Fold 1-phosphatidylinositol 4-kinase.
Amino acid sequence: MRLFKMAVAIDQHHGIKPFSRSQRCKLQSFGHLDHNILGLTHTSFSNSIEQVFEADNIHRSFSTPCLPLTTLSGEDLSSSHPRIEIVSGSGAPVHALVVEVAIAMASGVHPKPLPSGLGGAYVFCNKSGTNIAVTKPVDEEPLALNNPKGLGGQILGQPGLKSSIRIGETGIRELAAYLLDHGGFAGVPPTALVKFCHAPFFANDDAAATTAPQMPKLASLQRFIGHGFDAGELGPSFFSVASVHQIGILDIRLLNLDRHAGNMLVMKHNQKSYVAEVATDLVPIDHGFCLPEWLDDPYFEWLHWPQASTPFSEYELEYISHLDPFKDADILRAEVPSLQESSIRVLVVCTIFLKQAAAAGLTLADIGQMMTRGFCGAEEIPSKLETICSQVKASILLISNDENNNGKGEIGEESSCEISGISFGDLNQGQWESFLEIYNKLLLGVF
């Protein structure tokens, strides 16, 4: 097999600088993703890798970085050669990850399908056989048209396994979780949204009949985390309090609907045996079911673990106090513009709830319980958070109403807080600002 190599050219003052012999990548913008993304026509890419990134000297580009493949001699590769392009995602860890995958693809490495899970997922390894990345194509999500596990047939944009999250949108939520894990607090692995061209992924007959034969694949890409176990294989007594708290804080902010034991990985510690006396760290993965479009019922595996009932440390309280939900909202609007505004508002509501509750001395378990629905007989009972938001929203709509009797009747129905969930996307900007003002005041009374 022919070896492919790459070289580095770094301008210490202006970031990455290409070699003069190489072509520049000229790409269309992929800043906004819609549900017909798979229908994009094939974009012409230059056939050279011009950039390898030095970890301490990476600056965000105004255009989408391109990482196509080339030989050392600079000869053009076949137009059908696999390529990878960053659609959304930035920072040294993300760029380094994409470059590693590009090198692996140039060396002839093919992604290997993972048998677990309900959607299509693949692992990339480097030439030495070490796993380096996991990727999940958008069109292979559960229920999506090209799902390889027999759970396909629906178009992107329809309600998914969780009705508050649309088919084809779990990848952008994976990216959002990484962007919001400030300073790597919870340890979300580096994540990007990428486009693969001509990579050997799954394609069923129905999709092949309706799409171009070499259609690009939009996918999430995440650093592979070497681990010995997942949380379900050991049990909570093995895990450090800090690790559980850090994941729990992230889950509350994002209203994670699917934090089960299988998506918390137990880190390896130099192949040492795991003993109960040694607290280990957890790494959270699989955030596709975060940031729903309305207040849905979350699932927190850690809710009844003893660590969740331990008070927050001073470090954790300081981290929570410095969270800025409105700055986070702006980050998502800029970096993940295809995320629905209603999902961003859920982030704001949940972050404010966390900040107020933590400041009042509540534990992680207390907060998680207030966000989780209960049961009365065979019926679900709205969570405390849903009840609060329902009351506030009803009062806002009442104020906005022209004192019309019919309108008041409709508002009364809103205050009943149906289990279908509370949405904030139908509030105009003025109503949303009023909601937040009343919501803050009400929380002060609750806590």
Q: What stands out?
A: The CA atoms of residues 29 and 63 lie 7 Å apart. The longest strand covers residues 131-137.
